[in-house]
Write a structure and sequence with these properties.
- The structure is a single chain.
- This protein is α/β, with parallel strands linked by helices.
- The chain has 2 domains: 235 residues, Aldehyde Dehydrogenase, Chain A, domain 1; 186 residues, Aldehyde Dehydrogenase, Chain A, domain 2.
- 37% of the residues lie in helices and 19% in strands.
- The termini are far apart.
């Protein structure tokens, strides 16, 4: 694999064979059979140890993300911090895996629900968050009593190897209380992901990536009646109303559109601005885009690093060409930057395209810093534009009107899994459930009750009387 910074070779890895992948899954399943019986608070101690190791190596891990994924330093450090945060969250969760006690209609009966460990969980992650997405899934899975089998992106295997080493250190330090194979790592390309998705010993597959990839995974897992947790594509919109704080909105828009070189699932891709503001706001956006510092992601002051590879660059160029052919007007950006940046990397200027509405190309997710700017007249029109794409991950509105904010958040408002007011579309915290609807897959990770994805629910009825009483008044006497 090569670094997106300058295409330098970082190393080579041999993809896991079918036999090796199967062995890893079987080892994880064997570990699960022991791990599920370890008390949840003790499982939390393993996660605490992992979190402490990540905390001690935060700087080194962030540098590895920059090297392998091309993120600027502050974003890379933020991703590692996200890993630390989810570890802390999961440790507390280890003492809160609670069920319900339910009133029974039968005398001297008690009903309750329990949540039990599910099994070995398959995790498939993408290159743009090579550490955090694994942590969202793995740390919750571990405290829930599951083993973990991780297939990272073939574009970011070093990040995965580094985290796996820390996990193995933590397991070794806890001596015999932790099964040795509770966390497994499988390197490879899409064939390795297919092997995980089809394996009958993995009752849950959590997959992050494109909607196309998610459909393949969902069909494969459904064929064996397994579960999926899908975090797929986004086509996120932000509405700017006449009452908005435009200075704050501008800062949020540029970060959401340009951060991670436009390669986040929550990247802002569609900007819906009131017709009374759009001309003057377009000028400010052009100035903001043109002044974004572009360069080596490790350099101080740089806000926009490279695209992940040549394929991403050419996908961006094709999208820009399609937008112009469909009637869009390029206001700025889209060119490759070759001066003042490392050779052989694919650095680009963020592009701003003015469109009349959701053109065909606007309805597609292009993983690059392209922002489509469109006008609206009434708030209902803006919400309709927001919802009129197949993806449903993140959305936002900038307004000082309580009525507009509540309409956007209400049942007839944004149809996305994330709807924000006066902040951008990207930069979610781990304390709240993360995910979206429609082609985004419907999955939820991180906070709230996302832990239930990684467990199975059992309903128990206990009769502590001396008579057998049937529900619904049924009588059946021999």
């Amino acid at each position: 694999m090569r670094s997106p910074i300058d295409a330098a070779i970082l190393g080579h890895f041999v993809p896991a064979t079918a036999g090796l992948a199967n062995h890893a899954v079987e080892a994880a399943h064997g570990a699960f059979l022991k791990w599920r019986c370890v008390p949840a608070p003790l499982r939390g101690e393993l996660v605490r140890c992992i979190g402490n190791k990540i905390r001690l190596r935060k700087t080194a891990l962030a540098r590895l993300i920059t090297l392998e994924a091309g993120k600027i330093c502050s974003e890379a450090e933020g991703e590692v911090q996200e890993c630390i945060d989810i570890c802390d969250f999961a440790v507390g969760l280890a003492r809160q895996l609670h069920g319900l006690t339910i009133a029974s209609e039968r005398p001297k009966h008690r009903m309750m629900e329990q949540w039990q460990p599910l099994g070995a969980v398959g995790i498939i992650t993408s290159f743009n968050f090579p550490m955090a997405v694994w942590a969202w899934n793995a740390m919750l899975g571990l405290v829930c009593g599951d083993a973990v089998v991780w297939k990272p992106s073939e574009k970011a295997p070093l990040c995965a190897i580094a985290l796996q080493r820390l996990v193995e250190e933590a397991i070794d330090e806890m001596n015999d209380t932790i099964p040795a194979h509770v966390c497994q790592l499988i390197l490879g390309e899409h064939e390795a992901g297919e092997r995980i998705a089809s394996h009958p010993l993995l009752p849950l597959i959590s997959a992050t990536g494109s909607s196309r990839m998610g459909r393949v995974v969902a069909q494969t897992v459904a064929a064996r009646l397994g579960r999926v947790l899908l975090e797929l594509g986004g086509n996120n919109a932000l509405i700017v109303t006449p009452s908005a704080n435009l200075d704050m909105a501008l800062q949020a828009i540029v970060f959401a559109a340009v951060g991670t070189a436009g390669q986040r699932c929550t990247t802002l891709r569609r900007l819906i601005v009131h017709e009374s503001l759009i001309d003057q706001f377009a000028e400010r956006l052009v100035q903001g885009f043109d002044n974004v510092p572009i360069g080596h992601p490790s350099d101080d002051g740089v806000l926009l690093g490279p695209l992940i590879d040549a394929d991403a660059y050419w996908a961006m160029q094709q999208a820009l060409q399609a937008a112009e052919q469909q009637g869009g007007q390029r206001l700025t950006g889209g060119q490759r930057v070759e001066q003042g940046v490392p050779l052989n990397g694919f650095y680009v200027r963020p592009a701003l395209i003015r469109v009349a509405g959701n053109l065909d190309i606007v309805r597609e997710e292009t993983f690059a810093p392209i922002l489509y700017l469109m006008p609206y007249a009434e708030l209902d029109d803006a919400i309709e534009l927001n919802n009129a794409v197949s993806q449903g991950l993140s959305s936002a509105i900038f307004t000082d009107s309580v009525r507009e904010a509540e309409a956007f958040l209400g049942p007839a408002g944004s149809d996305c899994g994330i709807a924000n007011v006066n902040i951008g579309t990207s930069g979610a915290e781990i304390g709240a459930a993360f995910g979206g609807e429609k082609d985004t897959g419907g999955g939820r990770e991180a906070g709230s009750d996302a832990w239930k994805n990684y467990m199975r629910r059992t309903t128990n009825t206990i009769n502590y009387g001396s008579e057998l009483t049937l529900a619904q008044g049924v009588r059946f006497t021999l």
